[in-house]
Design goal:
- The complex is a heterodimer of chains A (about 240) and B (about 210).
- The mean pLDDT of chain A is about 90.
- Chain A has eight helices and no strands.
- Chain A is elongated, with a radius of gyration of 30 Å.
- By secondary structure, chain A is mainly alpha-helical.
- Chain A has two domains: about 50 residues; about 180 residues, Ferritin, core subunit, four-helix bundle (Ferritin, Up-down Bundle).
- Chain B has about 210 residues and is mostly helical.
- Chain B has one domain: Ferritin, core subunit, four-helix bundle (Ferritin), CATH 1.20.1260.10.
- Chain B is about 70% helix and about 0% strand.
- In chain B, helix 2 runs antiparallel to helix 3 and helix 2 packs antiparallel against helix 4.
- The chains are: A mainly alpha (about 240), B mainly alpha (about 210).
- At the A-B interface, helix 3, helix 4, helix 6 and helix 7 of A face helix 2 and helix 3 of B.
Amino acid sequence: MSAFTLTGAEGIMKTFVAFVVFTSFCSFVLAAEESCFNDVVRACKTTNKMSQFPIACSAKYGGIEADQEYLQKYVNHHFIRSFEYLLMSTHYANYEKNRLGFEKLFRDLSDDTWDDAIELIQYITKRGGEMNFNLISEDIRSEELNGNNFELYELQSIAKAMDIEKKLATEAFQIHEDVCRKNDKFYDPEISHHMEEEFMPKHRDTIRKLAGYTTDLSNLLKGPDSSLALFFFDEYLLKQ
Amino acid sequence: MKTTVVALCVFLSCSIAIGSAVLQCEHKELDIPKEWKDMVDPCVHSMRGQIEEELKAAMQYMAMGAHFSKDTINRPGFAKMFFESASEERQHAIKLISYLLMRGELTSRVSELIKRNLAPKTTSWVTGVEALKDALKLEASVTKKIREVIKVCEDNPTKYNDYHLVDYLTGDFLDEQYHGQRDIAGKVSTLEKLMEKHGALGEFLFDKKLLE
């Protein structure tokens, strides 16, 4: 009788210990997932007035923390290009060049890159990130070493715009790759989707448009009436 | 002998073909009279400087917009106002550029007009009212710089008073500056009074008002 009771008590004890271990394990797992909630619970209980805002309640999730730097650089590149296009537009608007069509082409590119930069800042903050206006890539920084000239002839200026647009387009691809394919720490299809929706089609269309212009302009400039051709081409650009 | 002559002919024709380009990308030097260009150097120089000042102000407003867009700050009304101000400052710079172009300037050194590094100095503010106060100080400094451009263009070592430019800056630019400053000052006053008694609620309500 006593032997049975002892085994019974032992069994109950073991079951109880197992139950405690199991529930504490469950609550630990659940606690890790609900860290914003736990922070809030803790904050609501504390009587210390100097306690901080619950940090796990930011909008950050997925790859934004790791990828933020590249998005910030992308914004700054857009600002740089916006000002460069503005300079090219200014050059064509002076009385010596007097190409109002080319002025409009580069002014529109400047306005587009400016608006894209603002939109991207709003996107970064939507994902819980912040903006840093000091970061630019080494590649862009090294452009300054060769000296930047924005007072170019017509075909050269369209060629320069094409190179700028391709650089912006390729950088969008790199950001896309970074958050999806290249790393195994996180997978963020939202950032890559944003790149796909907001940037890639625009770049594709602009690059195609500029490529068409270089084709037409090269053919026009080969003929005997290159200056007349340029005049008409400029008028055509004004209507676009 | 014959092969040498043939080789020489081929070489000459090739070099001529390379020498005269197929694509006429450039045009000849123009000969345009210059008497109509009557802006003096000190005035042009200070106008060029003012273009960059306007763009620097635009980037400072951009930093304010970025700060108030953050989730930990969450003031979309302030953010909207500051992003709009940033684009407006850029439009001011474009207006100044257009004026210089009208007067026949900016035919050279266009590449030097805008520096690459226009990163703003301040990028975070404790409250909305602090940012608005900074905005007011920013506008006041831009106004002061426009006044300095006016001074240079009105009275300089060459003793040339550029009536039209001074009139344009006074009537157009200064007018907009003073109206803008009055608007921001009113906002600072309203918000500061709200914050005194109602703190975060005051800023929250004011932010929603800015969204309208």
